[in-house]
Target: Alkylated DNA repair protein
Amino acid sequence: MLFDVSRPATRIAPGVAHVPGWVDVAKQRALVEETREVARRYAGTPMAMYQPQLKSGKMSVHQLHLGRYWHYETYRYVGNIEGTRVPPMLVSLQEIARPALRAAAEVSPELEPWVETFYPEMALVNYYPPGSGMGMHVDDFEESLAPVISLSIGDEALFRMGNTENRNKPWDDVTLSSGDLIVFGGPKRLAYHGVVRVNDATLPEGCGLKEGRINITIRQIDARATL
Model:
């Protein structure tokens, strides 16, 4: 892992750490290739990468679940649908989780309590096509309040970290480039957040994508899960 010294690591807010350039280009490409292979393997099954249909309309992003599957219809995590099991959590993402959290805790001490206990049970892979985004929302589906670890690959995105009360200000806007790590937890674990926009044609050569952006969030689901 390499830090981007031209963009220093920043404590965006208590419990929110941004570490630019934490994942080097070679590792970015490897993660893209791994997740792409899973998507190909499960294409045409109930676990295929897809655009979720919400009450407000179809999401612009495409989602792939690893380890656990968030079932929007029943509003809970499940292990299989119609007999098809969720694709297993990638070992590479399990191995990256605690080092990522440790790096973030060096920037935001509020994350420190979870460094040695975090258990990476699932990952949500979001592919953002050019021109897409994601509205402000709260990740409150998990029983555990362990931090959410987020990796960015591909085009730059304007990420918005809001407050815990509503979708309105105050909020902090952060530009996430390919290879950036952002982690939120502690007092900001249940804060509203979203992606305002993706800046097209800003991805680095060799990251594994030709266009768009992949965001991988690594999560602990169960409160008492352990390695």
User: Anything to note?
Assistant: Helices lie at 25-41, 91-105. Residues 109 and 142 are 22 Å apart (CA to CA). Residues 25-41 form the longest helix (17 residues). The mean pLDDT is 95.
